[in-house]
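quick q for whoever's on today - can somebody do inverse folding on this one?? i tried earlier but teh output was garbage lol. tokens:
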């Protein structure tokens, strides 16, 4: 891989676990809606599912545990899961994420958020004025095939008007990494929810967003 330094025009971020400390709340809400069916969902299992649409996550759980849930009931479960998340999660991205987004804007980089979550949840997770910190917001309603399909990131690149090779994606889960790689982006993975060995397909592994400027600006 040739260096991203010097050709990067945009940085594309996942939301959960990258800009926001929301994965634990999502995992709790998923566990709660499936607990009446007698199963306990480990947080790590749900962290590996990050990036999928809610409908796909639910169907995967149903298949794995051999559950039989009518569509109408499942739809209500998804509504409840999102409601529980919004009730439990305090809106706002992390301070280090805000600093980085401001720094990127000063450096004339375009930015996008590329999330597998529904727009209602994304807008709730963002604090006042934070949506305006991005040039492009991509949520589950903006594409048909979710991560690991490349469509979410290709959609973002098209709206940013960049070639994927000129973008850097920041992810924290294998499905998001796979999506960004398939789209042709360079990928930095942050070890916020999973260990480095589970993120090894990314070009860069970072422990903190504070490490990102070194990838972009230093030789």
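ok took a stab at it. sequence:
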């Amino acid at each position: 891989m040739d260096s991203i330094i010097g050709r990067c025009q945009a940085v594309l971020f996942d939301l959960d676990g990258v800009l926001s400390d929301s994965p634990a709340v999502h995992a709790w809400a998923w566990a709660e809606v499936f607990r009446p069916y007698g199963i306990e969902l480990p947080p790590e299992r749900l962290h590996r599912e990050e990036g999928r649409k809610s409908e796909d996550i639910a169907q995967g759980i149903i298949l794995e545990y051999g559950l039989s849930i009518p569509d109408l009931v499942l739809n209500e479960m998804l509504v409840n899961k999102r409601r529980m998340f919004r009730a439990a999660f305090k809106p706002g991205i992390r301070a280090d994420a805000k600093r980085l987004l401001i720094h990127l804007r000063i450096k004339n980089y375009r930015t996008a958020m590329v999330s597998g979550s529904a727009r209602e949840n994304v807008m709730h997770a963002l604090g006042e004025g934070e949506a305006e910190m991005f040039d492009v917001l991509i949520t589950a309603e903006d594409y048909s095939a979710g991560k690991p399909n490349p469509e979410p990131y290709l959609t973002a690149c098209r709206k940013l008007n960049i070639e994927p090779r000129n973008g850097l994606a920041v992810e924290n889960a294998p499905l998001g990494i796979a999506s960004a790689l398939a789209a042709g982006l360079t990928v930095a993975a942050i070890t916020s929810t999973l260990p480095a060995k589970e993120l090894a397909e990314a070009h860069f592994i970072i422990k903190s967003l504070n490490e990102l400027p070194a990838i972009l600006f230093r030789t």
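fwiw Residues 82 and 121 are 7 Å apart (CA to CA). also The chain is about 40% helix and 10% strand. so keep that in mind when u check it
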